[in-house]
Amino acid sequence: MRSLIILLLILPVLAFGQVESYVPSEPCTAECKFENYYEPKEIEIPVYTGSPENMTVRRDVYQIDLGNGKKERVVVVLDLIHVDAYEMRTYRKMSLVKEGGFKEERTILCPEEITPVILKQIQSVLIKEDFLPVGYEPFEEFKLELKNALNAYQLANGLPIGHLDFETLDFLEVDY
Fold first, then answer.
1. What pLDDT score does 97 carry?
2. How many Cβ atoms are within 10 Å of 24's Cβ, its own excluded?
3. Pick the residue with more confidence: 41 or 120?
4. Which end of the chain has the smaller Cβ count within 10 Å, N or C?
């Protein structure tokens, strides 16, 4: 009887091999280059919404740098106490954190985790942002043209350059 119990306990191991516990793989890292290191910062600005002919309102025109070479011209109210014709708007501005010319180890998306779906999402953002030509035919692999466009995008937006790090993926709003 005892040998039958032992056999029943050992049989699944003999049939299916030794059961191994799942160990998550180590995250991939790479040395990323920084020209300058920026972090996004949200700022709220009182934007004038009244008549342009109203010359009694103290206001000024600002150019808000939205990153990627894009700027928006806004009329900012300077005297909030005496004006009702304004609304608070939130802008995302890139703020310089550290001067460039350095490299830093970053966690990146491992090569085996870069799926065709992720590549297509990246390519569509780069086309929309004019880093790839409009007629660009999306590929399911990481080709040189895509790598160069991604590097240019990273440089223009103050992101780590050279790899698919998680900061870049988040900035691109890619699902990974």
1. 82
2. 5
3. 120
4. N
